[in-house]
Design goal:
The structure holds 2 protein chains of 2 kinds.
Chain A: E1 17-21, E2 24-28, E3 51-55, H1 57-65, E4 72-79, E5 82-90, E6 94-99, E7 103-107, E8 113-118, H2 128-140, E9 144-153, E10 156-161, H3 168-178, E11 181-185, E12 188-192, E13 199-201, E14 207-209, H4 211-216, H5 219-225, E15 228-231, E16 234-237, E17 246-256, E18 263-265, H6 271-275, H7 286-301, E19 305-310, H8 316-329
Helix pairs in contact in A: 3-8
Chain B: H1 6-11, E1 13-15, E2 20-24, E3 29-33, E4 38-42, H2 44-55, H3 63-70, H4 74-90, E5 95-97
Antiparallel strand pairs in B: 1-5, 2-3, 3-4
Classes of the chains: A alpha+beta, B alpha+beta.
Amino acid sequence: MQILPEAPAGPARERAARSLAFGLPIEVDPGIEIPGIPDVDAPSLASRPPTRVRLDPTELERRWNGAELPPERVREMRDGETVLLTVELAPPAGYLLHVPGFGRILIAPEGTELICDPEPGSSQWSILLPAQALPLAATLQGFEVLHASGVVLGGRAVLFAGPPGAGKSSLAAALLYRGGVELLGDDTVALHPHGGAPIAHPGAALLHLRPAEHERLSTRELAVLGPAATILGKQRYSPHVTGSPAPLGDLFLLERATHGPPVEHIESVDPFALLASTFNLSVRTQERLVRHLDLAVALAATGRVHRLRVQPGMDATQLAEIVHEYLLEQ
Amino acid sequence: MASSSTSNLLTARVRLPQHVVHRSFVAETVVLNLRTGKYHGLNPTAGKMLEALAAAPTAGAIVPELAREYDVEPAKIESDLVALCQGLLERGLIEVVDADPA
């Protein structure tokens, strides 16, 4: 099956564009196109000050070298000996995200400024913005970002959290094919505590599936998912994403299992399962740690946390049907 | 610093440091040490003990009420309480201060 090429980049803008994702109004300098985060009209932006995204390797270097303390590595992802991603913290410069082969992004301590330094020749460096840097910035601005996919159904956010490979993205995609829902986010969903009644904010209009799944998609399903591209061994799509935040409805914790009912309400939620659903392992300020814990309390207090058992042979379409019927019964 | 021996623990006043926060869930209490960034889980009984400790003049003062509530010998509560306090002390989740003069 042919992979559709990405739309060619248009001419560089002459002025900053304004966007909205992860609850953040974003001002993007000319020359940067953030995948899955389109420009929006200024009046639709939230009231908080914009988070500015700009290309300025020289300024990044100046700030990072001017840090008062030596950098502390707060996150590292490896594949064997190969370093895939690092995040270092050095006040007052902020958090430096580095993904070899893509580039570096310095996120100011308040999360309101992102300074980019793409690696020469990297055509896909800007995927770091929706995939890592903006979720980190949202965390610094008071959001809690879950490692989850999510849709909006009946005006409420329905989230799917679980370990990598559990099927979060496939399930969100299957619900999109089924219809009647809008995508909220894939892999990351920003929640604002909102006084204990969490509000889920849309992320990037991106969704990633494994190539084998891509091969099985029908023409209609491909049309639902939008333009496709290949990145890091996965198929990336650009489906429509909801334009508005939604109050949290239900949270499903996905797990691989060989027996038991496919879905069941959890009366007594394991708080550590909720805490482990975070996307952010880098921001360890006291304020954020308390917020992380308080969000777990709020999620448990909703009384709408469920276990979704993915059993051998069960595909995403079946799971989507199970989830949909279960929610209708609630 | 006060000794953490059994007798001293029961007569000492125990408090939660400012860098420790805790939140109760249905079947577990999570205690967060903000200095280390580590979360610790307590079962409901231990969670109840922690809350009572924070408000009591001495650790031993909570023994009679817990013995009544759980219908067990005070000596059993005392030994469980001391074990809990020692575990919390080792993790920096409580502090032992002088016994309340009142």
